[in-house]
Amino acid sequence: MTMVKAYHGHEGFSLSGNGKGYRGVFYSNLLCNKAGVCLIFDESQTGFGRTGKRFAFEHFGVYPDIMVVGEFMTGGMFPMTAMVFTKELKRFFDVHPLIHLSTFGGHDVGCLVASAALDEYERTRPWENALEQGTTIMNELRSVMESNDYIKSLNGLGLLISLSLSSSEIVSRLGFSASKNGILVRKGTVDNCCVIIRSSLLITADEAESIIWGIKAAINDL
Amino acid sequence: MDPKYRDNIHHLFGKHISKGQVRYLRCAHLGTLERNRKGIRFMDAGSGKLFYDAFTSAGCFNVGRMNESVIRALDEALDKYDMGSEGISSVPKFELANYLAKLAPGNLSHVLLCASAGDACACAMRLA
Predict the structure, then answer these.
(1) Can you name the CATH fold of A126-220?
(2) Interface predicted TM-score (ipTM) of this complex, two decimals
(3) Does B75 touch chain A if contact means CB atoms closer than 8 Å?
(4) Residues on chain A touching B126 (C-beta within 8 angstroms)
(5) Is B74 an interface residue toward A (CB < 8 Å)?
(6) What percent of chain A has pLDDT over 70?
(7) How far apart are alpha carbons A47 and B108 in whole angstroms?
């Protein structure tokens, strides 16, 4: 079994930007097929548009045997997720139904909320906006990156953006300054030298401009 | 909000949930207390200041905070449904599974509904 998180938001997006990630995912798929093992894509952060496509694995042109769909499925209004898998795996599940039980898993209220949220995803197609606004934010931040020694790299795709800084302390200072400017950003929990910028996918151009201003001002305050 | 009230909330959060988390939130300047939320913004209950949410709780708020159509669906659902019996079929379960299977690319055609991403990942690893 191989489990892949297409983009590591808390690790400075190590898979994106330099092409190694694409090859890595592609070869993972080849190796899984060769060895006859399952490929799982965890789309709990990236599903339904975060990276500019409906699912992040669509960037790689490979398809998993199992996909994990995260909490975004209910638009932040109900705790519900899902796992989507192939017919072949369903046969195994039919024979071994007790491998997983979840009392709240198929909550009827949650199902109706999730269906409404999926309607909203299909209506707004937020992956298109995520790609456009994310590219704008990345380009603007790249313009200040060259003149600032604290910034080591800028990675991301769509509206999943990571700014790697020279130390955890500098990240805290940036977070504090951004907070003063009215922007809530988060320090990476695995790589605490990076700042995660991950807004709603329906952000407008004006709202993106405000975030850019707030982050740029925070960078200048370092 | 009185700063003492906010400090007391943090104290009780630390006492009954996690002191480490309170320390982390303060160090990472995430010590805000979310109150009103709408679209991409929320208000800090302590200062009354409006924040742009560029955190979105790991992407849970992809379609904005307090999305009206999602709230409407929740409101209507609560008039007619409770959680339903585990393992027993229902129309909402069937319709959501059908919807997800249609949207999923490739050969992904079967659905297991779970309560959290950890729940779904645990099952995925067992199934694999």
Answers:
(1) Aspartate Aminotransferase, domain 1 (3.90.1150)
(2) 0.89
(3) no
(4) 99-100
(5) yes
(6) 84
(7) 14
Residue B107 counted as domain residue: yes
Whether B69 is in a domain gets the answer no
Packed helices A168-180 and A205-220: angle between N→C axes, nearest 10 degrees: 130
Domain extent, residue B118, equals: 85-127
Q: What is the pLDDT of residues B29-66, one digit of tens each?
A: 667 888 899 999 999 887 889 999 998 887 889 999 99
CB within 8 Å of A22: residues ≥ 6 apart: A15, A59, A60
Task: Tell me the pLDDT tens digit for each residue of A76-92.
Answer: 999 999 999 999 999 98
Q: Which residues of B touch A117 (CB under 8 A)?
A: 63, 67, 70, 73
Strands, sheet with B50-53, edge to edge from the N-terminal-most edge strand: A183-184, B50-53, B41-44, B34-38
DSSP SS3 for A134: helix
Whether CATH 3.40.50.720 fits A2-124: no
Total domain count, chain B: 1
Residues of chain A contacting residue B104, judged by C-beta atoms under 8 Å apart: 55, 67, 84
pLDDT band at A212 (very low <50, low <70, confident <90, very high): very high
Tell me whether B48 touches chain A (CB under 8 Å): no
- Delimit the domains of chain A by residue range: 2-124, 126-220
Which chain A positions have a beta carbon within 8 Å of B81's beta carbon?
A: 108-109, 112
Burial class (CB in 10 A: 0-12, 13-18, 19+), A2: middle
Those of residues 189-218 in A touching chain B at CB distance below 8 A are 196-203, 207, 210-211, 214
- Asked, for residue B15, whether it belongs to a domain, the answer is no
User: Is pTM beyond 0.90 here?
Assistant: no
